[in-house]
Design goal:
single chain, alpha/beta, 7-stranded mixed beta sheet, 9-stranded mixed beta sheet, 630 residues, 22 helices, 22 strands
């Protein structure tokens, strides 16, 4: 604090000195060779008066809240306003005290120009010196720096180039930009030329090699928008190492983040457009609330906990069946958020007594239900356990939320619930239906279901399996050459879950709808495998083989986000849609649900449970038809 006050006093002293010098210089320029004829008391009296007015105005204008090292156009605007106000106040004050003796009418204009230039120039000069840009004018350009190309002629390239320019010890020198399309070819970004579009990369590399300027690295500053395969192939052909700058969030300093790069990950090649997040709505949903997350040690549940913890909840409770997973997420959150009111509960969502105890102690206002059995083949072999966890567990959590008067309970659902061919998908569809029925009952608690597709890197999913197979030298196993899946990152999935929840809990929103996240375009699993092989610096089908194993029990060739009788409607929340569903007989649904849960609790066999599930979800085709087709 003492150091900060000293810096403020030095800046204030600098500006007062500049004001006095500007007035003296303005008088000298205006009077010219006749300056000696002006009485000294008039010159110095008005100089002191002008400096005093400037000092008062500058302090009241808040010029010293900013940091010189980060001076920007906004700071320059503040200087212009402050100097203008000081000059305008000086004129009547000087007239009342000295009748503006020997101060010609044009003098204030000259002083305004000089003082503005001095204050702006000193701040700009300090920033340039601190960032090492002045020394770079006479030092050898690019000495010791590796030449790189950037992919993307947009905001990401702008931030990255500016960040490098502000760092005299930056390891890279940008020699050119490859545009996503031809619109910006030939233009420049901070003096760096946009050399061409991606298809022109071979010719660009040939020209740069001829000049001895060939780069060794291509850095992605934006998603490749469907050009991921082409990027990987061209990078491999020309010996370019691929890396990527991190995506920026509102919590990161833009230039500091842009100055970094990391090895390219499979997520960088999805080409998904950035979703516009309603961050204020998300923050107001969580801030100051008591929140409970079930399955908080899993992939989705853990990310929910991380993002919720960063939004200042009054309390965060976690319910987790795995002791190790609970320990892991608890240690992470306590380290990152030491002030967080964190409550960790080891428990099963199928245990009604345990749930009632947790809800009574935590009194959550928001409940996110992420606990589930999600692996399709395992669920096929363990039908009863899947019914009890995915259906009974959801019912108990939703009922507990309603009984405790929570504002909302949010079910994390899956695209496998649409026209399900697996027990896992069918039980999640039943969970959706129960959530809808509870929401339509009109109680205080809003019960929501958010449906989305696969999450990259989640436990047991295809990406970690491919990585493990690559580490062993292959082969990579794919079930079918035509199989597709929707993918998004876990960070984006949870951001959209929170955005969907913030939208749906508004009082004016209709009840009983399912929220569906915009998953973009489905991705072929075999294309994902080839991309991962190329990212490892290897050649698909040559260095690493891809083998096909056939569809596993309950798997579908192509997942869907919308059922045959469902209609999709866009919402005002970016990336979030609403499903309009045909009405169901609520009484019959409740009877069928009770039959299913009673049978599962009594230990009914898999065949009987499948029949009960089919009564609730007539579109469930659990007879292996899809597998035979594959």
């Amino acid at each position: 604090m003492h150091n900060q006050r000293l810096k403020t006093l030095l800046a204030f002293g600098h500006d007062l000195t500049a004001a006095a010098l500007a007035f003296l210089l303005g008088m000298a320029l205006r009077h010219g060779e006749h300056i000696g004829e002006v009485p000294a008391e008039h010159i110095f009296g008005n100089t002191l008066l002008f400096a005093a007015v400037c000092g008062i105005v500058f302090m009241l204008s808040g010029l010293y809240r900013g940091i010189w090292a980060y001076s920007s156009v906004r700071d320059l605007g503040a200087i212009l306003r402050a100097v203008t106000l000081a000059v305008l106040i000086f004129l009547p004050v000087s007239f009342l005290t000295t009748r503006l003796a020997d101060v010609p009418r044009t003098t204030p204009v000259i002083v305004w120009l000089i003082l503005t230039a001095m204050l702006c120039g000193s701040r700009l000069g300090y920033r340039l010196i601190r960032e090492g840009r002045l020394s770079s004018l006479w030092s050898k350009a690019g000495a010791g720096q590796s030449p790189v190309l950037l992919y993307g002629a947009g905001d990401g390239a702008d931030l990255f180039i500016r960040a490098l320019a502000s760092n005299p010890h930056a390891p890279y020198r940008v020699t050119g930009v490859i545009a996503e399309n031809a619109k910006r070819v030939g233009r420049e970004i901070h003096g760096v030329k946009v050399l061409g579009a991606l298809e022109q990369l071979p010719a660009i590399m040939t020209q740069m090699r001829a000049k001895g300027q060939a780069p060794a690295r291509l850095i992605l500053t934006c998603p490749p928008a469907g050009q991921g395969d082409t990027l990987l192939e061209m990078a491999a052909q020309h010996g370019l190492q691929l890396s990527s700058v991190p995506r920026l969030t509102n919590l990161q300093a833009a230039e500091a983040a842009a100055a970094t790069e990391h090895p390219i990950a499979i997520e960088d090649l999805l080409g998904r457009a950035e979703t516009v997040l309603e961050r204020e709505a998300i923050a107001s949903l969580i801030a100051g609330k008591r929140v409970l997350v079930t399955g908080g040690g899993g992939t989705i549940g853990g990310e929910l906990c991380r993002q919720i913890a960063a939004l200042n909840p009054a309390q965060l409770g976690i319910v987790e069946l795995s002791e190790f997973n609970l320990y892991t997420i608890e240690m992470e959150l306590r380290e990152k958020f030491p002030a967080l009111n964190l409550r960790c509960h080891l428990g099963d969502v199928r245990d009604q007594t345990r749930l009632r105890d947790i809800f009574a102690k935590d009194r959550p206002e928001l409940v996110f239900h992420a606990a589930a059995l999600k692996h399709v083949p395992i669920a096929e072999d363990n039908v009863r356990e899947t019914v009890l966890t995915n259906v009974l567990g959801t019912k108990m959590v939703a009922d507990s939320a309603a009984e405790s008067g929570a504002l909302a309970a949010v079910l994390i659902s899956t695209d496998k619930a649409v026209n399900p061919t697996s027990v896992m998908g069918a039980t999640k569809r039943v969970a959706e239906l129960y959530t809808q029925s509870l929401d339509l009952s009109g109680g205080k608690t809003r019960c929501l279901a958010v449906r989305f597709g696969n999450v990259l890197g989640s436990t047991g999913s295809v990406v970690p399996r491919f990585r493990a197979q690559l580490a062993k030298g292959g082969p990579l196993t794919v079930t079918h050459p035509d199989m597709t899946r929707y993918f998004m990152t876990v960070r984006e999935a949870v951001e959209l879950v929170l955005q969907a929840s913030a939208f749906a809990v508004q009082p004016q929103e209709e009840r009983g709808h399912i929220l569906v996240l915009d998953m973009g375009t489905p991705v072929k699993i075999v294309d994902l495998a080839r991309q991962m092989i190329r990212l490892a610096g290897l050649r698909p089908d040559e260095d690493v083989k891809i083998t096909y194993t056939g569809l596993r029990p309950g798997e579908k060739m192509h997942e869907e986000l919308i059922g045959g009788q469902e209609n999709l409607r866009a919402t005002t929340a970016d990336g979030v849609n609403i499903l309009l569903n045909p009405a169901r007989d609520a009484a019959q649904f409740r009877r069928d649900l009770e039959d299913l849960l009673r049978s599962a609790s009594a230990g009914a066999d898999a065949a009987a449970l499948r029949q009960f599930i089919t009564r609730l979800v007539p579109e469930f085709s659990g007879d292996g038809a899809e597998r035979k087709a594959g």
